[in-house]
Amino acid sequence: MIQFLLLGVISGALLFIRDDFIELQKNTTLRETIVSMVVAGAIVGAGLGGWMNDRFGRRPSLIIADVLFLAGAAIMAFAPSPAVIIVGRVFVGLGVGMASMTAPLYISEVSPARIRGALVSTNGLLITGGQFMAYLINLAFTKVPGTWRWMLGIAGFPALLQFILMLTLPESPRWLYRQGRKEETAAILRKIYPANEVEEEIESLRKLVEDEMVLEGSIGEQSVFGKLKKAFGSKVVRRGLMAGVIVQVAQQFVGINTVMYYSPTIVQLAGFASNDTAMALSLITSGLNAVGSIVSMFFVDRVGRRRLMLLSLVGIVVWLAVLGSTFLRAAHNAPPVSDVETRPFANQTCPEYNPNVHWSCMDCLRAASTCGFCAHEGNALRPGACLALNNETRGVCHADHREFYSEGCPNKYGWLALLALAAYIVSYSPGMGTVPWIVNSEIYPLRFRGICGGIAAVANWVSNLIVTQTFLTLTKALGSAATFLLFCGVSFMALIVVFLTVPETKGLQFKEVEKMLGSKNYRPWKRYHPEAPTKGREIGVAML
């Protein structure tokens, strides 16, 4: 939860950081860098997290992540320039990367198999809850002097609370058993399982760990490179890693973090100029994301991981198509720029504007020198003025009781775009929002779970970085409509790839997942039945 609170709070803070630093108003790449540097830090953090999980345990990794969260929040709150904000974002990113792959792993290893999926989904709910809290924090400080400093700094307090609570929690029993700390393992399992199941679980864990340690054996596997070599030499790990990496990459390439990081900006692209309005409407999308996580908790162990992801992707494709089409319609109906409306602003006119050439609001916003559209007083859909983009012209426009648009143009389709955006979130959250993390907590052999989880998390964050570092640039180069239609096409490809490569792990013990992946008749799109060997076959015919 903490990591996504710190991630989500930048979406609203960015609007005010942009207004405070003039260089950000004219440089979308710098804005993208402020957002995406947390992702760059997360890539390194996820890689370190995989090694630290295996070397020091799950609990110490989470504690170190909390320290990084707190340090990053403090740096950003007191930052005198965009460069220092970026440094703070990197600190936060290191913690985010470590926590993102450690938290679901820790939860899955201290959870009984029958409710493991629901508990990992609870982590997903807390993640979306953190995002929702981030928007509430943003709204709470919109009228306070130093707006964005409070937004970024206050997010450090939950990290401090989590740090204190983690000191009271136990280590993963599976990791402890592998370290030979059997008495500690037994004590923890007695708190997790009913008394009549404890001995059976200890015996199952003993057999699993001993079998794995026999397979490990070599000295080379004590190093990261040795473990990687052995991991890729195993058919089970290769198949599991392919599925795990694919769902993590797909989770990002469907475009979700354009919404999470740039939600208020997207609302402004849809035609709502006010910062306060943009953040208030963004709160709705964040709330829907949290509701979707609750839905996932109830259905992930009933419907299944694979089916939930496929249904989620179908909805994503449909609603991204609707969203892109709506932006396309809005662009074609943007209000024109009027010489009569522009002339009173004299020296504040956009340098590229030529009254003899027909311009719409969209042409104004695409001007090379970076300009904004000052809407008509009383009716934003009527012709307006095209002005140079700076705080002075923004203030003059507002003083004349007009709205100033710098991201998107006024249009009558804005509410339809918001409805499509909300439906996209509802489709994403129960499936692609939480299930990829569940799959990654279940699909790797214990001996390789830390290193494989780290690889998958790095793939997730690299994909995240690509999306966040290019979104604003794409909207400027291609337009909002083409950008969302591009995400729609990528999501359709993800639907096909997930169908062909990701198996169902619902209700399977870890050893049963290994057996499924190692089967010579393995087909990801067919259901595996653990009891199948007694019937003479291992693969069922259920397609989902």
Structure, explained:
It contains 24 helices and 3 strands. It has helices at 2-20, 22-25, 28-56, 58-77, 82-109, 116-140, 147-154, 156-166, 173-178, 182-192, 195-216, 224-232, 235-253, 256-269, 275-303, 305-332, 339-342, 361-365, 391-399, 414-433, 435-442, 446-477, 480-501, 510-518, and strands spanning 371-374, 385-388, 404-405. Mean pLDDT is 84; it is low at 532-544.
Question: How are the elements arranged and paired?
Answer:
Elements: H1 2-20, H2 22-25, H3 28-56, H4 58-77, H5 82-109, H6 116-140, H7 147-154, H8 156-166, H9 173-178, H10 182-192, H11 195-216, H12 224-232, H13 235-253, H14 256-269, H15 275-303, H16 305-332, H17 339-342, H18 361-365, E1 371-374, E2 385-388, H19 391-399, E3 404-405, H20 414-433, H21 435-442, H22 446-477, H23 480-501, H24 510-518
Antiparallel strand pairs: 1-2, 1-3
Helix pairs in contact: 1-3, 1-5, 1-6, 1-7, 1-14, 3-4, 3-5, 3-22, 4-5, 4-7, 4-8, 5-6, 5-21, 5-22, 6-7, 6-15, 6-21, 10-11, 13-21, 13-22, 13-23, 13-24, 14-15, 15-16, 15-20, 16-20, 16-21, 16-23, 22-23
Q: What is the CATH topology of the largest domain?
A: Growth Hormone, Chain: A
- Spatial ordering of strands, largest sheet: 2-1-3
Structural class call reads mainly alpha
Helix content: over 70%
- How many whole angstroms does the radius of gyration measure? 25 Å
Oligomer: single chain
CATH superfamily of the largest domain: MFS general substrate transporter like domains
Based on the coordinates given, report the CATH architecture of the largest domain.
Up-down Bundle
Strand content: under 5%
Can you summarize the main beta sheet?
3 strands, antiparallel
Subcellular location: Membrane
Membrane topology: Multi-pass membrane protein
Pfam family, one: Sugar_tr
Protein name: Major facilitator superfamily (MFS) profile domain-containing protein
